[in-house]
Write a structure and sequence with these properties.
Radius of gyration: 27 Å
Strand order of the largest sheet: 5-4-8-2-1-12-15-14
Number of strands: 29
Low-confidence stretches: none
Number of helices: 18
Mean pLDDT: 96
């Protein structure tokens, strides 16, 4: 048995104090390690860098005796051999406001188990006991504790004793503490709860009503009770934040305050739709990734990178179903759904890297490319989230057409759940593509190959036609045009082929797109643009000057490259056709209406 005691004697210094007791350490000397990455987030994070101090003790003649500990690599410690129980005392600096780390001050606390709990090498399957103590500040006396760790004497939403069957389970139940607003609700007979941290005045009952419908939609897709006895949404609200991380019976979410629904306002803002999609995405992960998972994650090796070519399915399919569930649950209209699909397609069309990197390559290289982007990433990589969404869409529509709606991506997910999720067996490499081809027949094999192993664009326009949808790829109407239906006034202008960063009053180039005028002229990322055609430009005058410039017009730029001023000529190009707009045809045939009904929701209006 492994005992952990979580304390915080100085929240102002952002420190967690952990005391850990190993009842039966390795008699040859116990080794301990801290994960270098977190499941669901494929980047080496080196959590051990936040350990400030670590000491080890054993009991001798009724007193604690300090023993030697040697650090043998960046995240592993070797303890001196002892005959009795071994105690570790260590301190973790916790001031990481991400969803993957730990943070504490006098207003709130949060920790992801990977950031706090040392693993006992060789005893990863041992029972783990955790005692969560109140941090040493007066406000914490009234804090609540929100976690799905099994209570072992701790009161509901309170400090005290918790338990986990093994180390992997221990680190899969994050803990949120603070002055929380907790709302409990039930979905399909299963207890759910939302714990909200941070100052906010949103309409939480409306949020609960909407996410309940989304959760029910996901549960019904898999056709049985959910794979957990309870579920917790941990939501931290900040001025400007967005993100989520899945866990086996909970998820950690961050949202901007303005994205919450406002009281007495029944409208569906873009921010609120985005927030609902985030809830939907992380909840779907309870099936896809937490139970249906790559074979290389069985079990997780948290000391080394684990490679798979299938993230396009585990993340891309989840990204597809997050918004699809919203429209099926009728918390989003079909017009809004098609706009979101348009925006996803637009992001991919504006990514030159889609012609360079295949989807399987994108999945495999997530560790070094997707999670570590640079100024050239848009030219060299494609997102397995975004393109994965479009591949899921294309495969879903093609399966439905090929089998007269007898098979779909829904039936693929259901088969994956039966064969790999329920028995908790890892999915071998290539198996998901194989299942899709089995369900769709030989005619679907070319599309699967094209989608996964080539850089060709998907035949979405032809697939949409069978569903009564029209895909129009056009030039952007203005700088705010991210795809979909746009009601703003069109603004014609020339194309530079760069992205601009405003830093106070100064203008910098943040990205230079492959094939564009800026690249051809020799512009680079981090160049500072100080004048156009001899006229000084800054953040205040930039739009006024550049919006008057037309395609085929040649301009002289004065540019600081590092600290050297240069004059560069650049000829603008016409705006590229990279903006997607998906609309429903004015007159639907009976078959098109049936296809839409089967895909989105029954009895399509």
């Amino acid at each position: 048995m492994i005992h952990y005691y979580v304390d915080a004697k100085d929240p102002k210094a952002h420190l967690f104090n952990i005391r850990m007791v190993i009842t039966e350490p390795n008699p040859k000397g116990q080794m301990l390690s801290l994960p270098v990455w977190n499941p669901g987030s494929y980047l080496i994070r080196d959590y051990a860098r936040h350990i400030v101090m670590l000491e080890a003790y054993t009991e001798m003649n009724g007193k604690e005796k300090k023993i030697q500990v040697h650090k043998i690599n960046s995240n592993t410690w070797q303890c001196e051999a002892v005959k009795g129980p071994l105690t570790l005392a260590y301190t973790v600096y916790a001031w990481d406001y991400s969803i993957r780390g730990a943070r504490i001050d006098e207003t709130q606390a949060f920790f992801n188990g990977c950031a706090l709990f040392l693993a006992v090498v060789g005893q990863e399957t041992a029972l783990c006991k955790v005692k969560i103590l109140p941090p040493a500040c007066k406000a914490a006396e009234k804090w609540q504790v929100a976690t799905t760790l099994a209570r072992d004497g701790a009161p509901l939403w309170g400090y005290g004793d918790y338990t986990a069957n093994n180390y992997e389970e221990l680190i899969d139940h994050p803990v949120l503490m603070g002055s929380l607003e907790i709302l409990e609700f039930s979905v399909c007979g299963t207890p759910h709860a939302l714990a909200v941290s941070g100052k906010q005045d949103g309409d939480l009952p409306r949020l609960i009503a909407d996410i309940s419908k989304i959760c029910e939609t996901h549960i019904k897709l898999f056709g049985e009770k959910p794979p957990f006895d309870q579920y917790l949404f941990q939501l931290s609200v900040f001025n400007d934040a967005y993100g989520g991380l899945e866990h086996r019976s909970s998820c950690t979410l961050q949202s901007a305050r303005d994205n919450l629904p406002q009281k007495e306002d029944a409208s569906l803002s873009r921010g609120y739709i985005s927030l609902l999609g985030l809830f939907s995405h992380e909840y779907f992960h309870a099936w896809n990734v937490k139970r249906i998972k790559p074979l290389c994650f069985m079990p997780y090796d948290l000391n080394h990178k684990s490679y798979t070519q299938q993230l396009w399915a585990f993340e891309g399919f989840t990204s597809y179903y997050d918004d699809l569930a919203c429209v099926r649950a009728k918390v989003m209209t079909d017009e809004q759904y098609f706009d979101y699909l348009s925006q996803t397609l637009t992001k991919v069309l504006r990514c030159p890297g889609r012609k360079v990197q295949t989807l399987t390559e994108s999945s495999f290289d997530a560790w070094i490319k997707f999670y570590q982007p640079n100024e050239n990433s848009l030219n060299a990589t494609v997102s397995y989230y975004l393109k994965g969404t479009l591949v899921a869409l294309a495969l879903d529509l093609a399966l439905r057409l090929q089998t007269q709606n007898k098979a779909s991506l829904d039936t693929v997910m259901q088969q994956l759940w039966r064969e790999y999720g329920v028995p908790l067996q890892g999915v071998p490499e290539g198996k998901i593509a194989e299942i899709i081809k089995q369900q769709g027949g030989a005619a679907l094999a070319p599309l699967v190959h094209q989608a996964l192993y080539t850089t060709e664009d998907l035949p979405l326009k032809d697939l949409f036609t069978e569903f009564g949808l029209t895909l129009n790829v056009r030039q952007a109407l203005n700088d705010n045009d991210s795809g979909g239906t746009l009601k703003d006034t069109p603004v014609k202008r020339g194309y530079f082929g760069w992205s601009i960063l405003r830093n106070h009053s100064r203008i910098y180039v943040s990205q230079v797109l492959a094939g564009g005028p800026a690249l051809q002229a020799g512009i680079s990322a981090n160049d500072e643009i100080v004048a156009i055609d001899g006229v000084r430009t800054d953040a205040d005058t930039w739009d006024k000057i550049t919006l008057r410039l037309q395609a085929e017009q040649t301009v002289k730029l004065h540019v600081f490259k590092l600290d050297i001023l240069q004059e560069i000529s650049l000829t603008l190009q016409p705006l590229p056709y990279d903006t997607a707009e998906i609309t429903v045809s004015a007159h639907l045939s009976v078959q098109q209406k049936e296809n839409l009904s089967q895909w989105i929701f029954k009895n399509y209006p």
